[in-house]
Structure formats: C-alpha cells, structure tokens
Amino acid sequence: MALLLFLVLVAVVLGIIGVVAEGLGYLLIIGIVVLVAALGLVAVRWSQRTGRRPIR
C-alpha cells in the first residue's frame, strides 16, 4: 500500500512540474506513465487477492 501511495505521489509531483515548468513536458509524460504503472500494480494485486478466499 505504501508503494502505491508513493508512486501516485511521484506521478502527481512530476505532472505538476511538467505542466508548470516551461520545456519540461517530458516530466508530465513520465508522471502519466508512473500513474498508469501504479494503477496496473493495484489491478494485479486486487486480482490475486480475490483468488485466495477459502470456499465456505
């Protein structure tokens, strides 16, 4: 969970810097890539967790 929050925070900071600073648009793109990676990580963890429930 801490890794997810850290990745989202990094993505937001890079996105803000990429939008505000002139000529650093690549930081915005990197921020978007990091955000997509964090969402992919959440999806993988969520799909793995649903398979571990015991059948009652």
Strand-and-helix sequence, N→C? HH
- Counted by DSSP, the helix tally is 2
Q: Specify the biggest β-sheet.
A: none
Q: What is the beta-strand fraction?
A: under 5%
**Tally of distinct domains:** 1
Assign an overall shape.
rod-shaped
Gyration radius, to the nearest Å?
15 Å
What is this structure's SSE topology?
Layout: H1 2-20, H2 25-50
General description of the model:
Keywords: Membrane, Transmembrane, Transmembrane helix. The chain crosses the membrane at residues 25-46. With 56 residues, the chain is mainly α. The chain has one domain. Helices cover 80% and strands 0% of the residues. The chain is built from two helices and no strands. α1 (2-20) runs antiparallel to α2. The longest helix is centred in the C-terminal third of the chain and has 26 residues, at 25-50. The model has no long low-confidence stretch (mean pLDDT 82).
Give a brief description:
The chain crosses the membrane at residues 25-46. The protein is an all-alpha fold and 56 residues long.
